[in-house]
Amino acid sequence: MELDCQNAARGVWLVKVPKYISQRWAKQKPMTEIGRLNITRNTSGKMEVLFNLSEQVIRTDPNEDSVPSSSSSIKTSTNKSSSSSTTTTSVPTTTITTVSTSSSLSTKTDKPITTTTSIPAEHKFAVSNINHQTLAIFSQDENSKLALEGQVVQKGECRPIGDAHYMNLKKETIRRASQPTKIVQKLDRAINNFKPINVHRSELNEDQRKKNEGKKMRDDKEIVQNTLFAAFEKHQYYNIKDLERLTKQPVPYLKEILKEICNYNAKNPHKNMWELKPQFRHYGKNNQ
Length: 288
What we know:
Arc Repressor Mutant, subunit A; ten-stranded mixed sheet; elongated; disordered C terminus
C-alpha cells in the first residue's frame, strides 16, 4: 500500500482534549469554527497557550444528531506575530485536513460522554516535552489512501480552568453517573413467570434413557456367565460399566457373578478392571 509523504516535513501539534469537548466537536457541521488559540510567552520566555471554544460549540445540544467524523483532528490556520498568535480551528471533513503556514493542531480524544450541562469556554494547554519521542500523524481518506500529515513538534493536554462553571459540570456528571440504571415499576397485572430448570439437559437425557429401558430384570445365572465368557473372549479386561451395558443386569447381581469367575484388579496397570480367574481363562479349549 502506498503512503503519501508530501507533508512529512510539516510540524503538527498533538493535543488530548476532555470528553465533553470531543463530544461537542463531533456534533459540528463541516468547516464550523470550533475555537481559537491564543499563544503568548511570559517574561521568562515560557510559552503559554489559551484555548477558547466558540459560541457555536458551547450552544450545541448534545441530544441532536451528530455529524460523523473519521477522527478527532482539526484544521488550523495560524497568524503569527512577534509576541503572540491567534489560531482559528474548524471541524474537518476528512481524517486530517491540510494546515497553513507553520503549525497545525491534532487531538487525541477519549470516549464521549452524554451531558446537557453547558461546558466551560476557556481552557489552557499543558505542554509536555517530546525531545526523546518520535511521533507522526497519519490520515486515511474514503478511498483508504494513507498519508503522512506531519511530524509532531508539540504535545500537550487541553485542561479546563478550575472555576465554578467547571465544578458545576463535574457535579452534574457525577450526579448522572450515580443514578441507578434499574428502577422499580408498579405493575397493573401479574406476569407469568416460568420456573428455571434445576436439572441439566444431560441429566434429563440420562433419566429419560433409564426410563425407556425400564427396570433391569435378573437373568438366569448361567446365561449371564455365558455372556461374560463371550465378552472376555474379545477383551481381557473390562470395567463394571461396560459389563453392565453388555449384560444389562443390575450391578449388585452382576458383581455377585463376577466374584465367582473373575478377579478384581485394585492396582495398576489395570486398576478397577475385571479379568477372568486363571481356571476360566481356557474354557474355550475345554469346551472343544
